[in-house]
Amino acid sequence: MKPKTLTTARRIVQGFFLLLFFYLFIETESKGADELGWPVRLFLDFDPLILITTLLAAHKAAVAFYLSLIVIAITLVFGRVFCGWACPLGTLHNLVGLFKKHAGPVLKLHWLKYALLVFLLVSSFFTLQLVGLMDPISLLIRSLSISIYPLFAKGLSSVFDTAYAHGPGWLTAMTEPVYEVLKQSVLPFIEPHYRQAVFVGLLFAFILALNLYERRLWCRHICPLGALLGLLSRKALISRRVSEDCNACGACVDVCHGAANPHMPALYRVEECFACNNCDDACPEGAVFFGGRGIASLPLDLGRRRLLLPLPGCWQCRFCVSGQRN
Length: 326
Prior knowledge:
Layout: H1 3-26, H2 42-45, H3 48-58, H4 68-78, H5 81-86, H6 88-97, H7 110-125, H8 131-134, H9 136-166, H10 169-185, H11 197-209, H12 217-221, H13 224-233, E1 238-242, H14 278-282, E2 288-292, H15 311-325
Antiparallel strand pairs: 1-2
Helix pairs in contact: 1-6, 3-7, 7-13, 9-10, 9-11
């Protein structure tokens, strides 16, 4: 498959998963059960970070969470394709990043997401579940549920209510059938209101606005799920490779979603590659392709390796605490 074909395929797949996410989100309206049923929780079930932190905190997980092993297996073969092809929040970052015409400077904070991952794993080990605050799927669901969706529903309902109350008869005859269809499909049965709606909405808007400073800044430097998948992708069976035709023109730099240093083979970071295929598309020499294991990546530099040193002590400490509880 040619690069442009792969890039087009990626965009189609991204659009499909984003629309699927929104559809499943709309279907999460309460039906009276205590738990969300399948398939409305599908994206959460496929989230490896939720599986691992749940196992650390509770020593067991719902059977559905083991679906995330599929994502892990795909990552071990193809790298961070979930980040580049399937993550709905990543797709939203892509869309907002289109408003930034030039790539601009790249922060040297790749290590930060690994530090956050370590923190979340350690906190889960001590049964303090904080992953929902930072996990991209959880973050997107929370932002939509508390702020974006209620605002959307309120605004849309207000438009139709105004047309019904003050519009001429011919307008009402047109809008009311549409409104009935929306009430049965998109609009909630009861419009929710949350006190935290403004704060959560502004926070979500800020996270998306980070793309105007650096494209996919959240994905590159903050996302703990991306950090986990990055670690798994370091030995992926299929990864980006560069042939001898490369003339170091740097055309791949501005289009790289992960800021993986694609123009510098000696400094290339495979764990930061989203397999977006933009570098293949941009290369005038056709020197970039994805194939069997190729260029070795740099040793992972967290920038703060001492963050890992307390882990053995944490393990012992937890058993000490457990002993006191018994």
